[in-house]
Design brief:
The protein has 6 helices and no strands. The chain has 173 residues and is mostly helical.
């Protein structure tokens, strides 16, 4: 099997990911808040730092997610050009949907940093949309495409709540 990712996966991710991430994670929160820093929730300044920490923690997860889809999966995060191989390493060892969690972390982090209720409401709404998409489309598609390999992964790794992988599963590379 060729170890080099296909050019289409690289280009698709370089074009598609910034469009999706830019629209959902940056543009909509900007339109809702103007990125104007308002009074912190309940006057507690620590909310801002929690927001900054959430954004900072989410960025490497997002990068790992994108790189693994291209390098290991030989595909893109876009449904029209999904990975050809099941991606189970890196952040995918801890949770099945690290990209969505990272996006939500950035959205919620912006809401806390800016003191913006509309951005936090948007993040909760997007969490519901992501969940419905994962359950209604992605998981059935992965079951059909990868069969038993996906079922094993699904039983070992949680959908939304990260946890340390069990020793017998953690060794996969």
């Amino acid at each position: 099997m060729n170890a080099r990712p296909p050019l289409g996966a690289v280009l698709g991710t370089l074009v598609g990911a910034p469009l999706f991430i830019g629209a959902t994670v940056l543009y909509v929160p900007w339109t809702l808040s103007g990125w104007i820093v308002r009074r912190p929730f309940f006057g507690w300044m620590a909310w801002r730092w929690i927001g900054v920490a959430m954004i900072a923690a989410a960025l490497p997860v997002m990068l790992d997610f994108l790189l693994r889809f291209v390098r290991e999966g030989h595909g893109t995060p876009m449904p029209m050009a999904p990975p050809r191989r099941l991606v189970v390493n890196g952040t995918f060892r801890f949770v099945r949907n690290p990209g969505y969690l990272a996006a939500l972390g950035v959205m919620m982090g912006q809401g806390l940093l800016l003191g913006s209720v509309p951005v936090l409401i948007y993040a909760v709404g997007m969490g519901a949309v992501f969940h419905l998409f994962v359950v209604g489309y992605e998981e059935p598609a992965l079951r059909r495409k990868f069969g038993a390999e996906y079922e094993t992964y699904r039983h070992e790794v949680r959908r939304w709540i990260p946890r340390r992988p069990r020793a017998e599963y953690a060794g996969r590379t």
